[in-house]
Amino acid sequence: MNKKRVAINMTAQLLAFAVNMLLGFILVPVIDSMIPNAYGFTDIANKFVQAAQIIVSALNTMASRFITIHIHRNDREEANRYFSSVFFANVLMAVVFMAPAMFVVVYLGHIFQVPPEASLPDIQMLFFFIFVNFLISITTSVFGVAPYSKDRLELSSVATILGEVVRLAVLFVSYFFFRPYLWYVGCASVASTLVQAAANLFFTRRLLPDMEVKKKHFRWEKVRELVSLGAWNSVTRLGQLLLDGLSTSIANIMISAAAMTTISISTQVPTVISNLMGTIAGVFNPQMTIAYAKEDKKQLLEIIASADRIMIFIISIPIAFMTVFGKAFFQLWIGRTQDPGELYILALLNVGTLFVSASIQVLYHVFLITKRVKLNSVVILLSGILTTATVFVLLETTDLGVYAIAGVSTFYGILRNLVFTPIYAARCLKVKWYTFYGDILLGLASIGAICLTALPFQLLIEIDGWSKLFAVGIAAGAAALAVNFLIVLRKNERKMVLDMVRKKLQR
Q1: CA 48/CA 41 separation, integer angstroms
Q2: DSSP 262-302
Q3: N vs C: which end of the chain shows fewer Cβ within 10 Å?
Q4: Side-chain half-sphere of 369: how many Cα atoms within 13 Å?
Q5: CB 328 within 8 A of CB 473
Q6: What is the DSSP letter of 150?
Q7: Each residue of 30-53: pLDDT tens digit?
């Protein structure tokens, strides 16, 4: 494993993630205070996009794998055929999606409850821009393969940061100098995506000068090959949408617009942690794919082992802090317009799955590179169907309300990640079935130890302002790093970290 490359990629990816996260946390309370009970429509619009991505992912999920493998096997002509075929197929899908997207925009008021304080044309414009953003992103998605195929993910991070800076600029000017509207969020996303697409196009020309989008390279058989394998990933996406993607829509239709916004806000922190997980796991995906392309199983297993420990070392801290300091955070963040106690309980229910999945997140890429996606897709789909059915039953027969919506997906998610994911990944890699359970136990031990370490800070210090929260977070964070240093890292890894610190101090 190229540790230097991992360090560079991870630093850049985490920086891009931090910019995106900071923007989100600033944006939500501002919009909720300006336009009450309407921010949840942003989440619903994005869920429509996720539904459309179920179809798109059938083609695009496998594109990076095939292009990367053929590049590293020095088969440039074949890589070019996949590259061009994916581009033209995406353009065709973008054209096809225009009609249903416009139908949703026009008849939006007949589909969802729009609160009196919100403007229907404003929400329709929001949906319009978010749908346009989706069409642009799928049309230009193939250009994101270049940094992946060359294991230069820091370039993807540069594109993301540039896009987020543009998004922030558009939102700042819009909300501080003009009358507040929700559609500014969608407009800013379009501007951000255009900048990222331009950056990825530039990186493609620099990293893969042989890759050209030309009709002569287009092959329908390449599209069919990608779709035949990627269709199972579409099934996975559908299952994930049923697991937790319909929560805001169900809350709007079966409870109220206010419940929709409460659910949407409560998922912000769990979503940030989940996205951070995906960001870290994604750093290792190119090297896993390259090791598999070179048929180096030993190297592949080494990358997975290192990825799991790095994931636990980083992710266990925000999960534990959400558990211990979550209520204080919601009180300070959005306590003036929402019930912080309710948001905290809902956030805990949403973050529950991550207690298990955080330590084995990279295993999902194993299914993709080994082309063993079918069974995993079926299992996720079944758990999604069970989740949706159980939520409807509980809403009709109990008074659990929003707690039923948040809690059911966590129950099935934990069950799936305990009894299926680690065992099937071991089978795909032809190793012992219990190989990855040690990482799950290590992750739980890390989270538990950090919770116990942070709890005295929460009990002994009254957190009544952002300065106190940051001060407590820094102190508890330092203690948490020390705990993970002892619990998560192996002896040789601890020695490596100490040597790095000594060298820095000597300099």
Answers
A1: 11
A2: HHHHHTHHHHHHHHHHHHHHHHHHHHHHHHHHTT-HHHHHH
A3: C
A4: 25
A5: no
A6: T
A7: 666 666 655 667 766 766 666 666
Give the DSSP letter of residue 461: S
Q: Dig out the tokens for 32 from the structure.
A: 């909720």
Q: Which residue type, as a one-letter code, is found at position 232?
A: W
Rounded Cα distance, 412 and 391, in Å:
12
Instruction: Check if the beta carbon of residue 160 is closer than 8 Å to that of residue 196.
Output: yes
Residue spans per domain, the chain: 1-31+39-245, 258-507
pTM of this prediction?
Answer: 0.68
Handedness of CA 229, 243, 102, 275 (dihedral sign): negative
Query: Above 90 in pLDDT, residue 212?
Result: no
- 150/287 Cα distance (integer angstroms): 9
**292, 303 contact by CB (below 8 A):** no
Find the Cα–Cα–Cα–Cα dihedral 308, 405, 115, 32, rounded to 10°.
Answer: -30
Separation CA 274–CA 139 (nearest Å): 26
Residue whose tokens read 């008074």: 399
Strands (E), 172-211: none
Using the 8-state DSSP alphabet, how is residue 101 labeled?
H
Handedness of CA 23, 24, 26, 27 (dihedral sign): positive
